UniProtKB/TrEMBL annotation:
Location (main, coarse): membrane
UniProt superkingdom: Bacteria
GO biological process per UniProt: lipid biosynthetic process; membrane lipid metabolic process
Topology within the bilayer: Multi-pass membrane protein
CC terms in the record's Gene Ontology section: endomembrane system; membrane
Subcellular location: Endomembrane system
Protein's UniProt keywords contain Lipid metabolism: yes
Transmembrane segments: 7-28, 48-68, 80-98, 140-168
Name of the molecule in the record: C-5 sterol desaturase
Native source organism of the sequence: Streptomyces aurantiacus
Region: Disordered, residue numbers: 270-296
GO molecular function terms attached to this record: glyceryl-ether monooxygenase activity; iron ion binding
Pfam families, per the entry: FA_hydroxylase
Fatty acid hydroxylase domain residues: 86-218
Length: 296
């Protein structure tokens, strides 16, 4: 097994330090038009992050078993060397893009990912607002394991990707140098991703690199100031409700469905999907995958 560091664990002191610096910066030099901080929201985000670490440990047991079985079956092997690690990071980022995009356009996957978009604030604590049901992510990386990437190497690359994305959850950094903005994901690009305006919905899915969005037609630059959150916000700070509200909405829709075709659509179509013969969605109801369906 490759001997690779736990990137997330080693980064925790930096997470804490940068968050404190951002909080102080917001207090000393407030931006009246920025979303800023709210104590309850920040506490909820931190709580979601801690819960995610605990649940991820549980989900990793069966996922690791599947990955290990696939790795043992494939005759291919990718050695962990100084020049292969950057290539594995690049490949992992490519599959992350498709995983992230899939979690926006398939409702049962969105039920997991919506947690990360549920805050109406955008700051470094928002990066910690992670889902508790990440068992939906693992199938997207099966090709890497089948190509001979060791599960531990994949875990290292995934952790590095997650750590990179911490610093882009901020309004305190404007646009960076043009070449950097062209290639890499930045705070400007990620503010667009977290916005709830129609033109910004379901855009900028990249993890470390933004070039995937440019290549596959999902890139939008930041122009108007983003409005964060969902098109129909959930208005709760209860971590359990934040983690499960979309699963509950799916269950309600399934109970009210009139056919198996509609049931399949409620689960596997986009989050705002409605059957063709249904009444138009009421004003304010989610109609795209950038939001959660309206709550009663």
């Amino acid at each position: 097994m490759p001997n690779l560091p736990d990137v997330v664990l080693w980064s925790i002191p930096a997470f804490v330090l940068l968050t404190v610096v951002e909080m102080v910066s917001v207090r000393i030099h407030p931006d009246e038009s920025a979303a800023g901080y709210e104590t309850k929201d920040a506490v909820t985000s931190v709580g979601m992050g801690l819960g995610s670490m605990a649940f991820d440990f549980l989900w990793k047991i069966p996922i690791l078993a599947v990955y290990t079985a696939i790795y043992e079956l494939t005759p291919l092997r990718v050695p962990v060397l100084w020049w292969t690690v950057p290539l594995m990071l690049l490949a992992q980022d490519f599959f992350y893009y498709w995983s992230h995009r899939g979690h926006h356009v398939i409702r049962i996957l969105w039920a997991c990912h919506v947690v990360h978009h549920s805050s109406e604030k955008f700051n470094l604590t928002t990066a910690l607002r992670q889902p508790w049901t990440t068992w939906t992510v693992w199938p997207f990386y099966v090709p890497l394991i089948a190509l001979g990437v060791h599960p531990a190497a994949l875990a290292f690359c995934s952790s590095a990707n997650l750590v990179y994305q911490f610093w882009i959850h901020t309004e305190r950094i404007g646009k960076l140098l043009r070449p950097f903005e062209f290639v890499f994901n930045t705070p400007s690009h990620h503010r667009v991703h977290h916005a709830s305006q129609g033109g910004y919905l379901d855009r900028n899915f990249g993890g470390i690199l933004i070039v995937w969005d440019r290549l596959f037609g999902s890139f939008v630059p930041e122009t108007d100031r983003p409005v964060y959150g969902l098109t129909k916000n959930i208005s709760t700070y209860n971590p359990l409700q934040v983690a499960t509200h979309e699963y509950a909405a799916i269950a309600r829709d399934l109970r009210g469905a009139g056919s198996w075709r509609e049931r399949a659509g409620r689960v596997f179509r986009g989050p705002g999907w409605q059957p063709a013969d249904s009444a138009p969605a009421p004003a304010g109801r989610a109609v795209t995958s950038g939001s959660a369906p309206a709550q009663p």
